Amino acid sequence: MIRRSALPLMAALLGATAAQAQDMAITNARVVIGDGSAPIDGGTVIIRAGKVAAAGAGVAVPPGVPVIDAGGKWVTPGLVVAVTDLGLVDVGAVDASNDVGAEKSPFNAALDVAPAINPHAQPIAIARANGVTRAAVAPLGTGAIFGGQGAIIDLGSDPRAVTLPRAFQYAELGEDGARLAGGSRAATYAVLRNALAEAREIALAPAGARRNDVLLTRRDAAALVPVVTGKQPLYAHVERAADIRMALSLKGEFPALKLVIVGASEGWLAASDLAAAGVSVLATPLNDLPARFEQLASTQSNVGRMAAAGVKVSLGFFNSMSPTITQFAGNLVALGRLPRAAGLTWDKAFAAISSGPADALGMADRFGSLRAGRAGDVVIWDGDPLEARSGVVRLFIDGIEQPLQNHQSRLRDRYLTPQEGSLPKAYDW
Amino acid sequence: MMGSARHVRLGMMAACAVALAAAPAGARDKKDKDESAAVKAARDFDKNPFPSTYRRYPGRTTLITGATVFDGTGKRIDQGAVLLRDGKIAAAAGALADLDVPADAVRIDGTGKFVTPGVIDVHSHLGVYASPGVDAHSDGNEMTSPTTPQVWAEHSVWPQDPGFSRALVNGGVTSLQILPGSGNLIGGRSVTLKNVYARTVQGMKFPGAPYGMKMACGENPKRVYGEKGQIPSTRMGNFAVDRAIWIKAREYRAKRAAGKLEERDLAMETLAGVLDGEILVQNHCYRADEMAQVLDMAKEAGYKVSAFHHAVESYKIGDLLKAADVCSAIWADWWGFKMESYDAVPENAGILYKAGACVVIHSDDENGIQRLNQEAAKAQGSARRAGIAIPDEEVVRWFTLNAAKAIGVDKLTGSLEAGKMGDVVLWNGNPLSTYSRPEKVWVDGALLYDANDPKRRPVSDFELGQPGEGDVK
Q1: In a domain, A115, yes or no
Q2: Distance between first and last Cα of chain A
Q3: Regarding beta strands A259-263 and B62-70, do their DSSP bridges make them parallel or antiparallel, or are they unpaired?
């Protein structure tokens, strides 16, 4: 309630100072388009009206467009983090600041994270300073197998974060799902089938009377209507190969279902099924331990093997605590150079954190690459972006340059010299 | 193994000799006669009842040439050569002519590759929170009393944790300190291991490594015991409980020195070991203000903090930490997961380095332990962007020699100085690049991982017969 009343105020404050998108050209850059193609040296990126007008080699700068000379630096599309808690949390362990889960809510599938997103949360500012411009925010901590509806956001400093609310439904169908459903995977699938069946009944007769033995509230069942009719994808978190196959088999019963598989630590063992189903996979890339029994076959080569088998796989499912997804992608490049391991080429590894997740979100025509017509989300880096040592120099969202300052950078500035000067540190700001 | 037992026992006898020499001859005779068996037992107990049975595996004399060598001490040798012989570093040098190489030595062309000392993690819970992370494997926090100096992590370590293998092959980790968790103010003794699978924990114990004692500040202890409705439920409660037990420990030690102790007390023996300087304090502590108060408490009680772990706010007090000679064992960029981590900055390592304080990159995590080199590189990059340029060879110290110092094994490993343990990683590229991985790892001169040999990688008991057995992981 406090947040709801505070938002319009902040919007008014920030709206007054929000920068406008300006046309610009970034020249003399090592341009990464982000669609899996190779970097282009001496490239140019043209942004007009907040969108990419052109990017690549031999692109002429239109007259009158301000030029940024990148001095040979790397220029890429902004990174896309698919399935994360960004914007839902200030401090993980401070419950009041954490809107990731709603274990005690009477609702589940009907929950919509969009109103809970705080564009000014520090994790957003910090992810932005690390090159992230778009995210799919999911209700990850849940009290039922359905977590609710996730939203697609941009990480701009303005108050309008949500690009697409209710973009997907999130469901736990593995070990966590079994626990939430009552104690077993058999229960998970009973709950899931029943829920989708109840949704189908509502879809067929929206105003009709419901049976008297329903388990879902009307709002939860109604929220699943777009899932069962294929208008809203179902993001299913599964790790075990058998669970992945089970999730894929739902298509037999509910043919309109649009599945996206999340997690998929054992995806390489179900790679042919995943490829045949043509579903997108958002994999946590470096799981290599049997952290759970549903992850016994985890290996860092998982993503590489799935990609080699023709699975539409990209990286995702990260929490906001460790902000550098570029490091994950970089490790996939490392694996490509290791005997018997499977990784990705540099070009594909970068795509796996840009156009790949954008495609999984159904947003590849909106953002995730520097192909013409995409949002003007552009990052200038001080080195190879997949190297852990590299960092962001400048960043634009929808063609608007974004601040890279945040709580961390302010602390850094204050304490570069830790000793007090003529006044206490508290006056140094 | 024998070295370890001898080392500890000799140390103890030396301490007794000093105490006895201080007493007048007549008094000493009388005391010897009067001393009861109980007093003797309480004073002359075996300080090493679970001795290391680790023995190095056979290794061949090996010469690596043409590699870039970061020797762990902050030195870089281009086109360097490293010679391993009899389980030890025989030499790391710039010119082959400087080395006495036997004719039958295995020669490895390291052109384009890099050599570092074996990576050391000072903060691991492998074995005490083993994979799979089921409740039955939760053995790291004895949260039944806020101070449990009597518990020893080695009695919780499951030597079949699959995590040890990942740390070796992906992280190049050859030694690691296993700590109890941070639910208690005093969590118990740590154990330092060689990262070599064994049937027993004793078979992994690092010969000659001192014990550590885990302490914790801040949110965890006060939350755990506050929820039980007992002290400590606040930060001031944390300090009160700590100070009270240090007072008891000093009394215990004085009584023991006076020959008046008639009962053994495992908790007090650990604390007395800290006061005697034989056991190193490893203190989980996030906030700068709390670290500063711990330093005063240590002065009051008469002990030294070896390292502050997690230490996300060390950058605010680099000068104090340098003066106290305390290492900060830190992550590169973990941030914001709890209130006391809210002021973490990625420049922590860089600002500490600039202040001349000891930096150690640690993991506290079964995944992070596989990438300590990359975490260090991240911190190096953040420092550079803040105007603090740190050469690669200095950054490598953060996960080698500085780590060894923080856990008291820097005379034995952590650098490529002649005579040290033959703990070595050959990387397929610069270890500070995300694209590099260990190609070969030697522990005490034995080749225990080779990326080019499918069988030269460990597979724990747990993973036999499971999907993915022996996979590249």
Answers
A1: yes
A2: 32
A3: unpaired
- Calculate the CA dihedral of residues A316, A321, A326, A328 and round it to 10 degrees: -60
Mean of all residue pLDDT scores within chain A: 94
Cα dihedral: B5, B9, B14, B16 (round 10)? 170
Q: Does the distance separating the beta carbons of A300 and B335 come in below 8 Å? A: no
**Mean pLDDT score across all residues of chain B:** 93
Amino acid at A235: Y
- Looking at domain B118-415, its CATH class is alpha beta
Q: Which two tokens stand for residue A7?
A: 């938002």
Q: Does B10 touch chain A (CB under 8 A)?
A: no
pLDDT of residue A191: 97
Q: Does B466 touch chain A (CB under 8 A)?
A: yes
**Dihedral sign, CA of A363, A364, A367, A373?**
negative
Q: What is the pLDDT of residues A253-283, one digit of tens each?
A: 999 999 999 999 999 999 999 999 999 999 9
A338 contacts B472? CB cut-off 8 A: yes
Q: Which residue has the tokens 């060894």?
A: B404
Cα separations in angstroms, B213 against B219, B283, B295, B324: 19, 8, 16, 18
Helix B219-226 × helix B235-257 angle, to 10°: 100
DSSP state of B104: T
Q: Which H/E stretch holds residue B404?
A: helix B401-406
Distance between B351 CA and the closest CA of chain A, angstroms: 6
Helix (H) or strand (E) run with residue B440 in it: strand B438-443
Minimum-distance CB partner of A389 among B315, B380, B472: B380
pLDDT digits (tens, 9 = 90+) for B186-202: 999 999 999 999 999 99
Query: Quick one: A284 exposed, middle or buried, by C-beta within 10 A (0-12, 13-18, 19+)?
Result: buried
Rounded distance between C-alpha atoms, residue B347 and residue A408, angstroms:
9
Would you say the ipTM is above 0.85?
yes
Interface probe, candidates B219, B314, B345, chain A, greatest A C-beta count within 10 A: B345
Q: How many CB atoms lie within 10 A of CB B400?
A: 35
Q: Cα angle at A343 between A338 and A346, to 5 degrees?
A: 105
Q: What is the pLDDT of residue B21?
A: 37
**Residues A189-215: tens digit of each pLDDT:** 999 999 999 999 999 999 889 888 999
Minimum distance, in Å, between the CA of residue A357 and any CA atom of chain B: 22
Q: What is the pLDDT of residues B55-77, one digit of tens each?
A: 999 999 999 999 999 999 999 99
Least confident of A359-363, A420-424, B34-38, B335-339: B34-38
Reply yes or no on whether the pLDDT at B469 is more than 70: yes
User: Contacts of residue A318 in chain B, CB cutoff 8 Å?
Assistant: none
Domain ranges of chain B: 2-34, 118-415
Cα angle A228, A229, A234; round to 5: 50
Geometric angle at alpha carbon B268, from B266 and B274, rounded to 5°: 110
- What is the pLDDT, as a whole number, of residue A323? 60
pLDDT at B179: 98
CA distance B301 to B275: 8
C-alpha–C-alpha distance, residues B385 and B381, integer Å: 6
Q: How far is CA A149 from the centre of its chain?
A: 14
Q: Is A290 helix (H, G, I), strand (E, B) or coil?
A: coil
State the pLDDT at residue A135. 97
Q: Which domain holds residue A201?
A: 79-367
Residues of chain B with Cβ-Cβ distance to A333 below 8 Å are 434-435
Q: What is the pTM of this model?
A: 0.94
CATH number for the domain including A220?
A: 3.20.20.140
Q: What span, in angstroms and rounded, lies between the C-alpha atoms of B227 and B240?
A: 18
Q: How high is the pLDDT of residue A48? A: 97
Residue A425: DSSP 8-state: G
What's the number of domains chain A is made of?
Answer: 1
Query: CB distance B386–A412 less than 8 Å?
Result: yes
Residue B390 to chain A, least CA–CA distance (Å): 12
User: Residue written as tokens 């110092």?
Assistant: B405
